[in-house]
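ok so I'm stuck.
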Amino acid sequence: MTFGLAAPAQASPAQASPVQASTIQAATADGGAIAAKYSALGGAAGYLGAPINNLRCGLVAGGCVRSYRNGIIYWVKAAGAHPVRGAIGAK
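replied:
not stuck anymore, here's the structure
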């Protein structure tokens, strides 16, 4: 899933630019918005299932995404973290 990927970046604040680092910090799995949403949805026992890759940032509008067995959680500062699954998540 690309979701408007401008320049994929792995979630590593140590290697990121200052802007990327602040985006990554806001969305990362260590207490950020994506992790909070995932936890609220039941974590690995919830409908999204287990994570299948690392957080990817550098999306359109500074967004980040993490994929899970049954969907994704997409985050952008203006809208927050939102799960996506089904046909819309498959595009």
